[in-house]
Amino acid sequence: MAKPTFFKRLMLWFFISLSAIGALVALTIALVIPSLPSLESLTEYRPKLPLRVYSSDGFLMAEFGEERRAFIKIQQVPKKMKNAILAIEDRRFYQHKGVDAVGVGRAIVKNLAGASHEGASTITMQVARNFFLSSDKTLRRKISEVFLSYKIEKNLNKDQILELYINQIYLGQRAYGFGAAALVYYGKPLEKLTLAECALLAGLPKAPSNYNPFTNPKRAIQRQREVLKNMLRYEFIDQKAFEEAMNQTLHFKESRQSRDLMADHASEMVRQTLYDQYKEDIYTSGIKVYTTIKKANQEAANEAVLRGILDYDRRHEYRGPEKIIDLEGKKFEDQKAKITDTLDGIEEYNGFIPAVVIKAESKYVQAFTKKGDMVDIKNDGLALIQKTLSDKDLKKRKIKPGAIIRVIQKNKQWEVVQLPKIEASLVSMDPQTGAITALVGGFDFNRNKYNHVTQAKRQPGSTFKPFIYSAALEKGITPATIVNDAPLHFSAAETGSGMDWDPQNYDNDFDGHIRLRNGLAKSKNLVAIRVLKAIGAPYAQDYASRFGFDPANHPAYLSMGLGVGSATLIEMVTAYGVFANGGYLKRPYLIEKMVDSQGQVIDQANTMFQNEETPRVIDPRNAFIMTTLLQDVVNKGTAQKAKVLGRSDIAGKTGTTNNQVDAWFAGYTPSQVAIAWIGFDQPKSLGKDETGSQAALPIWIKYMQTALKDMPIQNYEMPDGVMIRKIKSDTGTPANENEEGVNEYFYSEFPPHNEIHLLN
């Protein structure tokens, strides 16, 4: 028998191999097809959307979740975005049936010819892989991918498939989907992107880490240009659009989180509340929380607190640079790499940008910032460091080339600042409803997450006095009552503290016999103590609880009249709200409504939601008369700076604790009540003259300049049961028609006394 020729042996081997491969493929298909997953996760797509927190007027404050997502319907995807994706990923998407045979053939030819390493994976195949399969390069996975793609195409139309791809694909920076990527990389929604910006995003799916514009800007731009060339080649754009896009300089968002409004402490309050209810599920729930925060108010509060901190530091000595780099007398360009590396390791807080001094003169400083800008600082921007710049002894100057400082930019002007040791906070609410309109818990949430509005229990000082006076009105004491502003001495037995006590006025000045109204306006400590002694500390302690104060935090001693207990800002804004709204205790709330991922409003049975009907806790006459007393604090007392607002409906009280440890201002109108505070976390003196009027009131004023801007003046209506009588200003007794005097308010049942009503 003749031996088979080489050709016949080759053909035999070929057919045997082909048969084996065919059998293997058939076996694989037989195993794969029955095991293909259900398409329920596609047909009923529920992306893992983060918890998002918004202001009442719809501005994003924060998002919480492991994955950044922003689901967008296919109808809302800009055409240029869709075209950019198709041009680079699957230009025959609307022609093929899930697997592009033409594309596969083209890829094989190009890869064999060594012209490129071109893939043939379609958008449908990528959807199949992203939802159901691993990225393992096995035959079974490849076959599964092909058959799943056909199955997907059979059950979904092209727009549905593209919508899934656009929302599910991973694009780096924890961003899933192009809607989220637009916010992460550019800080704006997808519909506001330019063609050039869309092209860069379209290039990310191939390798998000390799083409990340934050870490690999050159590669990202190269990939973007490849996308634009494909768009031109396949006639998605014309030559003019191509050239414009190629010439556009891209600017990427540098902040860590995409948001419209900085309100970190308020956002964290919302997160914690929802976490207590839903646990880890909140991070993938897609719940949208609309708070009571108003954007304009919150921005004004942010700026007011920041300015209050900056002004405080200006009034005190500059502590010096954070570090010194030895520049060795070399030129800036020779030292730029060293400077940049050093600045990269220093964190930025609340816009306080690290910078290295390059030049320092008596009225001019040039500095290079962490953001890569060379900035010139002069005039008022040097206020914090002017003293050291003017020092004639060059060796004593703290500011010199190589010094690491902090700078901020306000109204296009640069200012030298320093990371503060002081803290400050502000909270405001609508006293008619309890809705919190602004909340700043401290200088910077990322530096100190402690919320000074809700967590810090501080001595309220003289801001507590109005609640003593309010209690006194119920005991028959009137604004016309004469109180002796003179020294007092209490023995250890009387104080209950084991020590004698000789209380003093802040200025160590005594006015003798004065009307109660003037005693509150001037914040006279001895007047407050005599009033408290007359009505009894236990009664005042119980009465103050009507305003929401915990009696345990305000022991029933005479020192309570000076505010030596403890209270938080949220308690103070609640309490002052009672005066502002005519006697109702409105508990502050932060959450207006919650909406699930399907747009349905969620049940709002939660303590942070709006109030139900609340009871009146003090007589409306009391609230009215107290408001007139607190208006005099503004008109002729310790808060006269507030007259700059030019309003007749402002009432409030300054507060300064012993040795100027805490400084407060609590003030209100019928539509807005706000509390400002400033102090150190570890209590110590703010310094000489750092009173509530000096340190806290300017914060409140700056906030109210915005909060009350478009609100008409609302004067309080006098309720029934209040009478106005003319009294003698020196005795508080009734004045005849022909006598000089002043008008005063009284309860109908407590008219002015014919004899001097004296607390001696």
From TrEMBL:
It is found in: Cell inner membrane. SUPFAM superfamilies: beta-lactamase/transpeptidase-like (SSF56601), Lysozyme-like (SSF53955). Pathway: Cell wall biogenesis; peptidoglycan biosynthesis. In the C-terminal section; belongs to the transpeptidase family. In the N-terminal section; belongs to the glycosyltransferase 51 family. Residues 60-231 form the Glycosyl transferase family domain. NCBIfam families: PBP_1a_fam. The chain crosses the membrane at residues 12-33. InterPro entries: Beta-lactam/transpept-like, Glyco_trans_51, Glycosyltr_51/Transpeptidase, Lysozyme-like_dom_sf, PBP_transglycosylase, PCB_OB, PCN-bd_Tpept. PANTHER family: BINDING PROTEIN TRANSPEPTIDASE, PUTATIVE-RELATED (PTHR32282), PENICILLIN-BINDING PROTEIN 1A (PTHR32282:SF27). It is a single-pass type II membrane protein. Gene3D superfamilies: Biosynthetic peptidoglycan transglycosylase-like (1.10.3810.10), DD-peptidase/beta-lactamase superfamily (3.40.710.10). This is Penicillin-binding protein 1A. Residues 318-422 form the Penicillin-binding protein OB-like domain. It catalyses: [GlcNAc-(1->4)-Mur2Ac(oyl-L-Ala-gamma-D-Glu-L-Lys-D-Ala-D-Ala)](n)-di-trans,octa-cis-undecaprenyl diphosphate + beta-D-GlcNAc-(1->4)-Mur2Ac(oyl-L-Ala-gamma-D-Glu-L-Lys-D-Ala-D-Ala)-di-trans,octa-cis-undecaprenyl diphosphate = [GlcNAc-(1->4)-Mur2Ac(oyl-L-Ala-gamma-D-Glu-L-Lys-D-Ala-D-Ala)](n+1)-di-trans,octa-cis-undecaprenyl diphosphate + di-trans,octa-cis-undecaprenyl diphosphate + H(+); Preferential cleavage: (Ac)2-L-Lys-D-Ala-|-D-Ala. Also transpeptidation of peptidyl-alanyl moieties that are N-acyl substituents of D-alanine. The lineage of its organism: Bacteria, Pseudomonadati, Pseudomonadota, Betaproteobacteria, Nitrosomonadales. Residues 425-689 form the Penicillin-binding protein transpeptidase domain. Its EC number is 2.4.99.28, 3.4.16.4. Keywords: Antibiotic resistance, Carboxypeptidase, Cell inner membrane, Cell membrane, Cell shape, Cell wall biogenesis/degradation, Glycosyltransferase, Hydrolase, Membrane, Multifunctional enzyme, Peptidoglycan synthesis, Protease, Signal-anchor, Transferase, Transmembrane, Transmembrane helix.
